[in-house]
Amino acid sequence: MKITLLTIGKTEDKYLIEGIDIYFKRLKHYIPFKITEIPELKNTKSLSKEQQKSREAELIFKNIQSTDHVILLDENGKEFSSKDFSVYLNKKMVGGQQHLVFIIGGPYGFSDEVYSRSNDKISLSQMTFSHQMIRLFFAEQLYRAYTILKGEPYHHD
């Protein structure tokens, strides 16, 4: 199984880039993992929120395959403990899933078409975080999940 984190826009803050890089390197030990950044839309002032979501959807669809298992990182998604998230990932591996694509949407979330295409929705918290911070939090939780699965001492109960 391989995992992709698909994001709208780039991570700009140096401290976040450094943190993401730390977990990106650590994850390579456990699973093929990549981050794909879709450029932010330009000249959006004349676009409605729905138009922006629709244009972002077009870009998202260009980066996923019909066989991908698509998981949206969404405020209304299912919440997991770190252990439960590791169980979720393990079920996907054991179930023969080849490619998980986790998606962080743009500032207004996802279009109805993206919601329709998704297989799951996960929320990392009931709190709201910047899209850039979510990338770091997700990478850390993914790393934590794999250390839990391997019985390594990173996670403490």
UniProtKB/TrEMBL annotation:
Protein's organism: Daejeonella rubra
Major localization class: cytoplasm
Keyword 4Fe-4S belongs to the record: no
Gene Ontology molecular functions: rRNA (pseudouridine-N3-)-methyltransferase activity
Chain positions recorded as S-adenosyl-L-methionine binding sites: 73, 105, 124-129
Gene3D superfamilies in the cross-refs: 3.40.1280.10
Chemical reaction(s) catalysed: pseudouridine(1915) in 23S rRNA + S-adenosyl-L-methionine = N(3)-methylpseudouridine(1915) in 23S rRNA + S-adenosyl-L-homocysteine + H(+)
Subunit structure, as described in the record: Homodimer.
Keywords: Cytoplasm, Methyltransferase, rRNA processing, S-adenosyl-L-methionine, Transferase
Subcellular location: Cytoplasm
Family: Belongs to the RNA methyltransferase RlmH family.
Biological role: Specifically methylates the pseudouridine at position 1915 (m3Psi1915) in 23S rRNA.
InterPro entries found in the cross-reference section: Alpha/beta_knot_MTases, RlmH-like, tRNA_m1G_MTases_N
Pfam families: SPOUT_MTase
EC number(s) recorded for this UniProt protein: 2.1.1.177
SUPFAM superfamilies listed in its UniProt record: alpha/beta knot
A GO-annotated cellular component: cytoplasm
NCBIfam families, per database record: PRK00103.2-4 (NF000990)
Name by which UniProt lists this protein: Ribosomal RNA large subunit methyltransferase H
This protein's record includes keyword RNA-binding: no
EC category: transferase
